[in-house]
Amino acid sequence: METKKVIRKEIFRRRKEADPIAVHKNSEQIWQRLFSLPAFQESDWIYLYIDCKNEVMTDGIIEEAFRLGKKVAAPKVVGEDMIFYQISHPEDLEPGYFGIREPKTDLPVADGEDGLMVMPGVAFDDRRHRVGYGGGFYDRYLSKHTRHFTAALAFEFQMMEEVPTEPTDLLPDVVITEKTIYR
Question: How far apart are CA 77 and CA 27, in angstroms?
């Protein structure tokens, strides 16, 4: 089995080489699968990452959530913690760490509200094991907020036969790609 470091390097290479038109098209297909989930339809709160560097795009999810009157929260890393702030408009985001858009810190903290967590990952396998970005931020956050339904988003090229696991890894409830939903 490949190490997480090797997997990250390979997936980052694949993402860098991804066609922007395909990234957008496949993101839209993933959104439709996400929107069909009862967890999306029934959740008042949508917690989600802000995409960067050819990840599954999230702007369309934000737009749909706002259209449906849902509350949206985006993360900001503060020290060893990840804090979600409620956003009401795309202008509530500003360039942050490594140029990734983050919520402004004068926004309300969205903490403790049950909802749908839309999470990223570098790679996954069909058993929903995940290679994250190495900081463990989502695992730590979700270990404290256990009532979120978690949907990880990935392109099929991010799916691996098997990824290494650690005792602190938390499995998402589903992994959604442009082709299927892994449960």
Answer: 24
